[in-house]
Each structure stands twice: as structure tokens, then as C-alpha cells.
Amino acid sequence: MTNSASAREFNRYLDAIVDLTGHSDSQKLLGSLASAMSASVKARRVCLYALSSPDHDTEFNESNVQSAVIYDQFDADFGEPLPLEKDPDLVACVCSGKIISRDTPEGRRMVFPVFGARHVRGLVAIEGLRDDTARDDLLAKLLQVYSNQALTLSRAERDPLTGLYNRQSFDDRIRSMTQRASRRRADGAGGAALCFALFDIDHFKQVNDQFGHLYGDEVLTLLARLMTRSFRHDDVMFRYGGEEFAVVLANADLQVAAATLERFRRSMEAYVFPQIGHKTISIGFTALTADLGVEKVVMCADKALYYAKNNGRNQVRCYESLIIEGKLEPITQAKGDVELF
Questions:
Q1: 253-258, long-range: CB < 8 A, 24+ apart
Q2: CA distances from 245 to 7, 78, 79, 197, 265 (A)
Q3: CB-count burial class (<10 Å; 0-12, 13-18, 19+) for 237
Q4: What is the 3-state secondary structure (H, E, C) of the chain?
Q5: Are strands 100-104 and 107-115 parallel, antiparallel or unpaired?
Q6: Looking at the predicted structure, is the pLDDT value of residue 341 above 50?
Q7: What are the residues whose beta carbons fall under 8 Å from the beta carbon of 133, sequence distance 6 or more?
Q8: Lowest mean pLDDT segment, chosen from 17-21, 51-55, 70-74, 129-133
Q9: In order of start, what are the domains of the chain with their CATH numbers?
Q10: Catalytic: which of 218, 243, 269, 295?
């Protein structure tokens, strides 16, 4: 590589770094990385794999890699997650935390780790690399910049007490899931139904008044852990505010959502909190579709939730069923509603 070509490549990486560090939105950060990678390497395909697990682990090493699944974040519709263990190169990268490189009939394959706070939280796989002049060291540094920025944004999106997504990331997460489900439905992929649920810990104020806020915080933390064990890796969970939580159930119609939420309610009812004993929750849920505004979706679930709380608590109520039964009046378009499109 000539000096002028080397200088152009170096400047290209500097431009990419400036672009990556200029984003405060995780989806835009992904787009920036995609652009940077396409400009930096000549390859058949570049994938950015997010890692997850049934236990909702966010970082992985050799101790939990067996349960990990992956999906390509550069694929707008993600598709179905795949078991990580089916790809030995990806497993090796997670376990070692090092770059994996080998030749294939289609060209060189390289896998780079994307780190979280302690372990690997994602992987970049370059398939069919045709450019022998690509600088592995510069690519690694670029991905480290991305890792740092993504970790910073992730911390800003998470509730520090429970580790769930916070209220500030709520609208963007729901919008992203709804748009993706709409695209899959339009493509005939199926399995695109979504439901949204709000739930509230019954008589939570009594916990704070009787035992103190430290015990109240412990209840919230343990409830969040119970949520991560009860819901699937592709469901998205939030601490909506105070003792109120929310979840978007992926690939779930109203019937599936009702069964899932009822199982969770029973798990909560049976759980014994240290010093406090048993607590219960009330749940309201509704279908989540692209033609509804975020505010209206929340209002529908909230109305079902408060019906549950005003009619005995410790129960799951569906907004649509309550309308059919004549127990609630339908909510018209919310004033000042923010449309999803």
C-alpha cells in the first residue's frame, strides 16, 4: 500500500470514529457502524451479531456460551435467533475474547469480539474478505470505539436498580419492534403479533412504609429477576416508573399473551420475598400494532390495569376483552398522541 493510499485509509477510519462518537441513539449508531464497515472492507457480507440467552444474559464468556443465541443487527428484521453453538468460530471468539481468522473457499473469514463492561456482548463477522490490504488492527480499534459508545448508550437506556430498560428508551424500543413486526407481516413471514402489558405491584406503598425503602428496592430488584426468568429473550422489559413495569411480548397474540402473563402472575404470587413474604401484581395488556400511537397503546393497557386493581387486584385483564364484555368504554385517539409513523 502506497503512502497516499495508507493516508486515505487512515483518514477514512478517523471519519468513521468521528461519526460513531457523534450518536446518542443506539439505532443510529448501528447504521453508522454498518456504513463504516462497508467503506472499510471488501467482503461478501458483514454481520453484527447481538448475543442473548433464555436468562437474558447480556455478556458472555466460556461459562454461559452454551445457552447463547445470536441475531444479526444489520438485518433490519433480525429473523429467528440461532444457537451460537452451531458456529465454532463464533464460539471460539466469545470464549477467547480474541479475533478469529481463517481462510474459506469464499475468502477469508474474520470474527471480532465486541466487548461490554467485562465480557463479550456482540460479534462482528466478516464473510468472504477479498481485500488482503485490510488492516486488522485498525478494524479492531474501530470496533472498540463502537463497543465503548454502545456500552455508554446501553447504560443510559437501563434502569440502574433493576437493569431493565428505562422510561427514556421506551418509545424508541416500542417503535422499533412495531415497525419490524409490520415489515415481517407484510413479507408474509408470520409470527409478527405483539402485545403490550403494564403491571403494578399491589399495595407496594405498604412495603416502603412498614419495612423501609431499602426493602422496597429489593422487591423491585427481585421482581426484575423474576421477569427475566419468566419472559423470553426476544420480549422487551421496562421499569416504567416506581413500582410499575412494562413488557412487550414478541410473536404473541392476545391468547398467547394472556397465558404468558397469567403464568407470570402466578410465579409472582408464589414467590417469597425475604423479610416481606408474598406480594402480588395486577396486569393490564393490549394488542400492539403499527397503526396506534405509543400514548394510546399505553392508555389502553393502563385502563385494563386499573380495572384489575379496582376489581380485586392480583389478576390479568385484557383491554380488548373488557371492551367486548362491556366493562370498559373504548379509548378514542388520545389527544396529543405521538403516531408511530
A1: 253/193, 253/195, 253/287, 254/195, 254/285, 254/287, 254/318, 254/320, 254/321, 256/193, 256/195, 257/195, 257/197, 257/285, 257/318, 258/285, 258/316, 258/318
A2: 51, 26, 27, 8, 13
A3: buried
A4: CCHHHHHHHHHHHHHHHHHHCCCCCHHHHHHHHHHHHHHHCCEEEEEEEEEECCCCCCCECCCCHHHCEEEECCCCCCCCCEEHHHCHHHHHHHHHCCCEEEEECCEEEEEEEEECCCCEEEEEEEEEECCCCCCHHHHHHHHHHHHHHHHHHHHHHECCCCCCECHHHHHHHHHHHHHHHHHHHHCCCCCCCEEEEEEEECCHHHHHHHHCHHHHHHHHHHHHHHHHHHCCCCCEEEEEECCEEEEEEECCCHHHHHHHHHHHHHHHHHCCECCCECCCEEEEEEECCCCCCHHHHHHHHHHHHHHHHHCCCCCEEEHHHHHHCCCCCCCCCCCCCCCCC
A5: antiparallel
A6: no
A7: 1
A8: 129-133
A9: 3-157 (3.30.450.40), 167-324 (3.30.70.270)
A10: 243
Whole-prediction pTM: 0.76
Taking the C-alpha atoms of residue 114 and residue 33, their distance in angstroms, rounded to an integer, is 12
What's the whole-number mean pLDDT along residues 217-223? Answer: 96
The answer to whether residue 262 is catalytic is no
Task: Compute the distance between CA of residue 248 and CA of residue 73 in angstroms, rounded to an integer.
Answer: 19
Fill in the amino acid letter for 208: N
**Rounded distance between C-alpha atoms, residue 271 and residue 93, angstroms:** 38
pLDDT tens for 118-145 read 999 999 999 998 766 567 788 888 888 9
